[in-house]
Write a structure and sequence with these properties.
This protein has 107 residues and is of the alpha+beta class. Helices cover 35% and strands 26% of the residues. Strand 2 and strand 3 form a beta hairpin.
């Protein structure tokens, strides 16, 4: 799951060998919002899918915010946590990975 922002706008994408999800967000959406939306978007997609899934994100701030369980600081945090708490234990694992070296410009 990845989100980004440039002068042309904000967006996010989720890629898997079985599917790809893409969303264009409001022009003034922050990178943090785009990263959270990518996680939320894939969770919505996976909640009705069978199996166990790993979501990889390079957004340490998103993972940290979700671990602190303070839902009120961003509207997407509470939505993500609601979906996560409604899933069977172990269905989805969220992992932080080191960011790519080319920056987060989405064009």
């Amino acid at each position: 799951a990845d989100g980004s922002h440039s002068v042309r706008g904000s967006g996010c994408t989720v890629w898997c060998d079985r599917f790809q999800l893409v969303a264009r967000l409001l022009t003034d959406a922050s990178v943090f919002t785009a990263e959270l939306y990518a996680i939320y978007m894939v969770l919505q997609f996976l909640k009705t899918s069978c199996g166990q899934f790993f979501i990889y994100t390079d957004s340490l701030s998103a993972v940290t915010a979700l671990q602190t369980l303070h839902c009120s600081s961003h509207y997407l945090l509470s939505r993500i946590l609601t979906v996560l708490w409604g899933l069977p234990e172990g269905k989805v694992l969220l992992e932080w990975v080191l960011s790519h070296t080319y920056g987060d410009s989405w064009q």
